[in-house]
Amino acid sequence: MLRKGDISEVMKMFMIICIMSVGCVMPVSTSAQMPIKYNMVTQVPPDSADVAYYGKRHFWRAAAEVGGFNIGLWAFDRFVQNGDYAHVTLNSIKENFKHGFKWDNDQLGTNTFLHPYNGSLYYGAARANGFNFWQSELFAIGGSAMWELFMECEYPSTNDIIATPIGGAVLGEVLFRASDAVLDDRSGGLERFEREVAAFILSPMRGVNRLVTGQAWRKRATPGKMFGTPNIAIQMSLGVKTMAFQGRMRSPYVGGVMQLDLEYGDRFEAKSTKPYDYFTIHAELQGMRYQPVLSQLQIKGRLLSREVLDHKNSSGSIGLYQHFDFYDSDTITNIEKVPYKLGVPACLGVGFLFRDVERHHYIFDGYVHANAIILGSILSDHYWTDERNYNFASGFSIKAGANITWNRRRASLSLSHEYYRLFTWKGYDKGTNLKTVNFRTLNVMGDKSVASFNVTEVRFDYQLHKKLYGTLSFTNRVRSTHYRDWPDHVSSTMSLQAMLTYKF
Fold first, then answer.
1. Angle 395-352-233 (CA atoms, 0-180°, nearest 5)?
2. Confidence band (pLDDT; 50, 70, 90) for 40?
3. Is the alpha carbon torsion for 182, 183, 186, 192 positive or negative?
4. What is the pLDDT of residues 415-428, one digit of tens each?
5. Percent helix, strand, coil in the chain (nearest 5)?
6. Which helix (H) or strand (E) holds 283?
7. Helix (H) or strand (E) holding 290
8. For the whole model, what pTM was predicted?
9. Spacing of C-alpha 169 from chain mean position
10. Residue 361: which pLDDT band, with cuts at 50, 70 and 90?
11. From CA 116, how far away is CA 114, in angstroms rounded?
């Protein structure tokens, strides 16, 4: 029987497979943030007949799919998992309403991945029934509230009611657009079956909806793509990674590493009001002893933007962006320390993007993002209780970076820096014994503290043969926390990656 932690690990890997599948099924084009990219197809706008056909809203069907999913998941937890939290009664529901919301103590993977992924299913049900981004977010909120109040006998979770719908919208829209790229209503036979299965895996609620309505086998004169053929840039990197804690480069950890970078849409579209017409994905998987397989996942989606600079030699845009950030590490065995953990499922901010057209055989582009973190989490050095070893927090982040490309596609140099400032404002009373406290009723964000997390990366790509590049990258991560009741703590982790990169 799978434990909650096991399910979280399975869901993390499933999400990564889905995200990586985007790169396998979508065509590639230009207009991406990556400094070097290749043009394979021409952008094609969606067919108006497809937009009208799949844009019809079906409220009751969407509501039934959201409610049906919650009931089905509860039945699995109750009768297959036999989880204590699933033994729901009228008294437990009444107690949930009476007690109200509290901060839970689930592990980082559960709160950062499993719950947002559940939210993506609520969101996907509405999206598949003709609702737009903002309307679908309301269904995600409703589905999350239904689960927290009615489907568990644990007190409803403050962090879940935030992370599930907001993080769910990020994952839900990315995976919904991925499924859209796969589908083709003009196809038939084995090809049609393969497309429908792939779309079901990427966006399960859309797959269910197509089966219920008969869309899964109905042939039409148009492809059925709500977003047409978008601009996409993809690169895959594979190589070796070394990691050293606190500057101990003489005894680094060594393992394999794989990175995926994907950029969807036109970053310099003159005016955009459709959420996620442009988004980016960065994922890193590693095969390193004692370390988690998924070490990094970041998604950045544009909600709206406007061009503010359009000259002969340069262009720029400003917009509103949604961010999803995750960094993970585990114990460095010979030191017995966990260097860092960071999860930001709910984040919103303003971003400025700049590009200078080719001159003197080089191209320069850059970006700056200033964000409000609605809900985040960062490793704690003291709140290691139940399943949680991190503090919940809110705060802000600043992200900036620049790329320089020489001789068109011959070589590129990239520099980026991310700064997170997180405030844990609801801590436990000084002197509380966390080993004996009742976690069912404990309602705290963690250690009262202020934490900073800095990520600096330098990357160099050099063309070896056509679309194959040699890549060297250096990353430094520094976590600094000021505690109210404990001494301050600072830790740093450096890593070096040597990879081969293929640009599709």
1. 105
2. low
3. positive
4. 999 999 999 999 99
5. 30, 40, 30
6. strand 279-287
7. none
8. 0.91
9. 10
10. confident
11. 6
pLDDT tens string 239-294: 999 998 875 655 678 999 999 999 999 888 888 999 999 999 999 999 998 889 99
d(CA 390, CA 498): 31
Place of tokens 């002969």: 312
Q: Tell me, rounded to whole angstroms, the distance of Cα 33 from its chain centroid.
A: 18
Owner of token pair 């706008």:
45
DSSP SS3 for 30:
coil
**Contacts for 424 with CB less than 8 Å, ≥ 6 apart:** 391, 392, 393, 445, 446, 447, 448, 449, 450, 451
Interior angle at CA 165, CA 121 and CA 122, nearest 5: 20
Residue 499: phi and psi, rounded to 5, are -140, 160
Report whether 106 contacts 343 (CB < 8 A): no
CA distance 67 to 504: 40
What DSSP line would sit under 223-279, residue for residue?
A: ---TT-B--EEEEEEEEEEEEEETT-TTS-EEEEEEEEEEEES-TT-SEE-STTSSE
Structural domains present in the chain: 31-41+229-430+437-503 (2.40.128), 48-213 (no CATH)
Contact 280, 313 (CB under 8 A): no
CB 37 within 8 A of CB 503: yes
Q: pLDDT tens-digit profile of 139-161? A: 999 999 999 999 999 999 999 99
DSSP for residue 329: -
What are the DSSP calls for 397-462, one per residue? EEEEEEEEEETTTTEEEEEEEEEEEEEE--BPPTT--TTTS-TTT----BS-EEEEEEEEEEEEEE
Specify the pLDDT at position 439. Answer: 85
Residue 113: per-residue pLDDT: 87
C-alpha–C-alpha distance, residues 210 and 196, integer Å = 9
User: What type of residue sits at position 171?
Assistant: L
CA distance 128 to 125: 5
Check residue 395 and give left, alpha or beta (phi > 0: left; psi -120 to 50: alpha).
left
Torsion (CA) 244, 248, 249, 252 in degrees, nearest 10: -50
